[in-house]
Amino acid sequence: MLRLAVLVLILANAGYYAWYEGWLRGVGLAPTEQSEPQRLQQQINPEQLRVVRTSPAVQPAGTDASNGNGNGNGNDKGGAASSARAASSGASGTGAAAASTPTPTPTPASAPAAEPTVCLQAGAFDQKQADALRPVVAAALPSGSWSLEGTSIAGRWMVYMGRFADEEALDKKRAELRGRKVPYDRPGPALEPGLSLGRFSTEEAAERALAALGSQGVRTARVVQERSDATAYQLRVPEATAELRARLESLRTELGGKTIRTCS
Question: Which residue, 50, 73, 233, 260, could crosslink 130 as a Cys pair with Cβ 3.0–4.6 Å?
C-alpha cells in the first residue's frame, strides 16, 4: 500500500512539472500566459521618449517642463520632486552636522594673582584713647578694613605696703621682708614708692593672702585695688596689604607709641 502511495505521488509531481513547462500544451493542458505583448505596444511610443535634465529647484505648479505627452510630464514632475527631496535631505544633513559639532568653550582669562595680606593689630587702648583714635583711623584707612575690638578686663587687687617717706625707709622695709622670706616686687608707677606683696583677680583672694602674711609678722600691709573693671580696645586690620601697612605705620604718634604687630 505504501509503495502505491509513493508511486502515485511521483506520477503526480511529474505531471505537474510537465504541465508547468507547457509540455502538455498539445493536448490543451498548459498554464495561462502572463505576458501580453500587445499591451506593451499600446503603452510605449518610442518616438516620443527623450531624456531631459531636471532643475535642482522645485518648479511652480502648472509649468510644463517639457512638450511631451502625459507620461513625459509625469516623469519631469517625478524628477523635480526627487530633486526637492534630495535638497531637503541635504539641508537636514547639514543642519544635523552643524548641531552635532561641539561649540568650543572659551578659555577664561587668568585672574591676576592676589596681593599677599597679613593681619595686624595695635593696643591695648582704654575707653578714652579708643574714642580719640577712632576718627583718626577712619580718615586714614578704608571703611571696612579695620576695627576697634573691645575686650572686658576684670579688676585687679594687690597686697600693698607704702607709700614710704623716702628711699631709705623703702630699703629698710625690703631688708625686713627678705629676713621674713616674704617675696615682693614693684607696685607700678602710680603706687611708688612702695612694695607689692602679691596681685589677685578678686578682693577676697587678696584679703586671704593678707591674713596669711600676718602670720609671718607682716603688720603694715593692706589690700588696694590696682585696676578697676574696664574695657581694653585693640585696633585690628585683618587683611593689611603693603599699602595699608604703610598707612598704619604713619599713625604711630596717634597710636601713642603702641607696637604694630601681627595678630595673635
Answer: 233
